[in-house]
Amino acid sequence: MTIIPRIKAFVAEFHIMKRACALVRELSPGYLEFNLIKSLLDATVPFIAIYVAALIIDELVGDKNLNVLLVYVTLSVGGTAFFTIITLFLTKKIDVLNAMFIIRIKKYLNDKKYSMDYAMHENPKYTELHAKIVEVMFLTNGGMSSVTKLLSDICHHLISLTIATGILIVSSLDTSTVDGSFSWVSILFFILTLAVIVISVFFSARNSKIVGEKEYNLTQNSSTNKYLDYYHYHYMEDDQAGKDIHLFNQRKLIIGEVLSKGRLPWMKVLNGRYSLHQKYFGMNVLISTFVGGYAYIYVGLRALAGHITLGSVIKSYASITILIFNINELFIALSQVKSNNRYLRSFFEFIDATSEQQSDKQLRIKNCETWEVVFHNVSFRYPNSDDYVIKNVSMKITSNRRVAIVGMNGSGKTTVIKLLCGLYQPDEGCITLNGKDIRDYDNEEYLKLFNVVFQDFQLLSLPIGENIAASRDYDDDKVWKSLEVAGIDDYVRGLPHKLKQPIYKYVHAYGINLSGGEEQKMAIARAHYKNAPFVILDEPTAALDPVAEFDIYNRFNEMIDNKAAVFISHRLSSCKFCDTIYVFDHGVLIQKGCHEKLCKDTAGKYYELWNAQAQYYS
Question: A cellular component term (GO) from this record (predicted)?
């Protein structure tokens, strides 16, 4: 590599580290600064101790002045006590700021994850990138977690090198002997010392680079975190999982999975890193040992020749030892920075992932009495797929109209709703709201137009009232009305804490677990509370029997008033009171019309579906 690419590479490494440091300072103010101050003290204090010790020894073998010795001893003891107190204070402060940083970096990462475009949120590229970032940060303490430590280490080593080099230069270039005579031996030994240091630098740089590359490759090939995360934090935390583990004797299976795909691969990574350090940094230790032996000879010969005092022997030897140690450690730290910057690039790639929904031309949504969403020849396929899930769909949803979207599982019904809500963007065609492309509207405002209950909804481990209102502040009467519409108000009134009763036991010990049907009724009540102009029920009653489902749809239909309502299901209980029914089959809109019209088409798909279920609704 020529000099210019090397400079460019260095600048790139510097900029990414600079950006990471700026984020650390933003999330935990003072964290980086206190670490750097501690590094300065950690690097400086040993030299102060060495210098004072040298003064004491020279005084003991020299004039033996008791007053001077008392001053030196006082400086030594007092300085040690002072710096110990300062170091303890800095350590406690850094521990607090580190805890704050860990909490805030997790929040920062999660906030970014959930503010991303929905399509990107489901894209395997970004889900895997997020998983790798989390693994590196919280399982190996790499990525953003190690930025402050690495920078502090580098500062520590540079300061130590600077001071040690200064002491050696002053000591070696003082070519006069103790008795004042001139000696060329000092210059010769100084040149030899430089040569030894250069050799040490060469091997340290080479070995650190090799270890950095191999260590990064080891970690990159590990996918252990997703297995450990799934079993420890998802499956094992699920109450239903506890039943399944006992009923199906899954204990050995789970332990085997965790060991074979989680812990054992991770131990392989750790052992690999340990072997690398032994192999390559062992050579550094040998070189350091050789240099240490040379330092003894160098300093000893100078002392025997009368070139330096006994105190200077201590200063010179300690300085050479510290110099060599910090050269090795500096190159290790620099190699770690280079490896860690790869993780930082992945981190910032995830952070910088832009949402296609964000645009400078976003329109504000004005309140209207009548709303109309129209699909214009819409086709869509999921990322990294060649197959269309939806093909050439044209349909209309307007205020004061009930629409049913029906079809067998996998026919594209839920995808249509995700397109309607702007969670995905069409690959072909467009979707308009009151005549304007929905991509031109502010996405957050557009989403406020929809009350949606998806079949894969999620309730929070919060009180029922907060769950229904999606807010800490809510109207009790309005919540009770929504619960009544969903047919679960009597159940909630019978609970000990009623609207303040927490759901689930993840957070509250007195939380309650709900059945699948009760959860779905809660989700329907939550959708009713929002009171948006579009109401969408995407198979939210799948856990209910057909009669209960029909009852809920009837009550919900009565409460919709002049809103636009969309009912999605492969069960057809909602279709009888809908104005328009859209029938999908394998992503294609094959029929549309009212219930009576479609039932007359005895060769059609709707007639087939209805007759298969008619016994439940007669």
Answer: plasma membrane
